[in-house]
Design goal:
Elements: H1 3-13, H2 20-71, H3 74-102
């Protein structure tokens, strides 16, 4: 195929429009049609990806938990539990102190 024939085919395959509005409408309709055709494929691929991600997260978290339960000595697990309890107690004390500082005590005459 020579260059003249290729240019001629390209020119004949172009659609000529009466005005700019018709060109926009035609482009909008063509784009919407292509999107409707592609949507099921994209939706399926997205659903598969979300499924695989959820499966991987669930598998990984349960594997790590089971592995830790089987291979971590009881003394280490007890240490983690005591440390977590101490952290919660310290957090509770800090919240109480902050609440005391933030909440003003009523001293002096009240305004009417």
């Amino acid at each position: 195929m020579n260059e003249d024939q290729q240019n001629q085919e390209t020119e004949t395959s172009k659609r000529h429009f009466e005005n700019m509005g018709e060109a926009f409408r035609s482009g909008s309709e063509a784009g919407a049609q292509k999107a409707r055709e592609a949507a099921p494929t994209v939706k399926s691929a997205f659903a598969d990806a979300v499924h695989d991600l959820a499966f991987g997260l669930a598998y990984g978290s349960n594997f790590v938990g089971a592995f830790a339960e089987e291979f971590v000595p009881q003394s280490v697990r007890d240490g983690f539990a005591r440390g977590a309890a101490a952290g919660r107690a310290a957090s509770h004390k800090a919240r109480e102190k902050a609440a005391d500082v933030i909440t003003p005590e009523k001293s002096g005459p009240e305004l009417a």
